[in-house]
Amino acid sequence: MSEPSSSEEPKKPATAAQVKGLVRRKIRKHPAHEEQSLNIYPMMDMMTILLVFLIMQFANQSASVVQSDDLVMPYSTSHEAVEQNLPITISRTEILVDGIPALTLRNGLVDPSQKQGGANGFLITPLIAVMTQHRDRLRALEAAGGTPFNGTVSIIADGRTPFRTLAEVIYTIGQAEFQNIHFVAIEEAAHNRPGEAPAP
C-alpha cells in the first residue's frame, strides 16, 4: 500500500466564523427583496367612470316605458318633455316604485287588507313604507350636497286604472311628502287624434 505523500496536508474542518462569512457572501450576491404593491388608484378612477356611465344609462332607460297587456298608457296632446323623477308605475296587476314591485293589485284595485282602515281606507300600507324609504334616501342625498328634495314623482298608470286606485296612490305618496306629481302619457300623433281624417 502506498502511503500519502508528505506534501498533502489533511483538510481541516471549517470553523463557525468561516461558515458565517460564506453565508454572508452568498446573501450579498442576491439583491434585496423589494416589496411590490398594487396601485389601486387607477382602478378606482376606472370604477368611478363606469359607475357614472351606468347611472346615466339607467336614467335614460327609466324614461322609456315598456307597454304590455297589463300596462296600456293613455294618450296626450302635450309636448312637454318627460322629467327624470321617481317613477311610480300602476299596472293592472301591481304597483312599482322605481321599477321595484311594492304591492300587487286585483284587476287594478288595491286589496282592502293592504290599506289602513280596510276597504274605506286611502292609505296603502306597503306603498307608504316604500315611499318613506325613498324620501329618507333623497333627504340624505340633499344633506350630502346632492340635488335638493322637491317631492316630485312621475306616475305611469294604465289607462284603465280605476279612479279610486289613483286617489289612494296620490293620497299615500302625499303622506310621504311627495306632493309634486306628474302623469306620464304617450304623445298622440296628429293622424291618430280624434276628429281628424286619417293620414293617407
% residues in beta strands: 15-25%
* Secondary structural class: alpha/beta
Oligomer: single chain
Computed over alpha carbons, the radius of gyration is 37 Å
Kindly report how far apart the N and C termini lie: 128 Å
Average of pLDDT = 75
Number of discrete helical segments: 4
> How many strand segments?
10
Give, in spatial order, the strands making up the sheet with the most strands: 5-4-3-2-8-9
Q: Are there runs of 5+ residues with pLDDT below 50, and where?
A: 59-63, 190-200
- Shape annotation: rod-shaped
Q: Roughly what percent helix?
A: 25-40%
Order of helices and strands: HHEEEEEEEHEHEE
Q: Describe the biggest sheet?
A: 6 strands, mixed
Please outline what is shown here:
The protein is built from four helices and ten strands, in the order H-H-E-E-E-E-E-E-E-H-E-H-E-E. By secondary structure, the protein is α/β, with parallel strands linked by helices. The protein has a domain at 69-187.
Describe the structure.
Helices cover 34% and strands 18% of the residues. The protein is of the alpha/beta class. It has a domain at 69-187. The strands form three sheets. It has a six-stranded mixed β-sheet. A two-stranded parallel sheet has the order 1-10. Strands 6-7 form a two-stranded antiparallel sheet. Helix 4 (163-175) links the parallel strand 8 and strand 9 (180-183). Helix 3 (125-143) packs across helix 4 (163-175). It starts with 15 loop residues before the first helix and ends in a 13-residue tail after the last strand. 14% of the residues are buried. Residues 59-63 and 190-200 have low confidence and may be disordered.
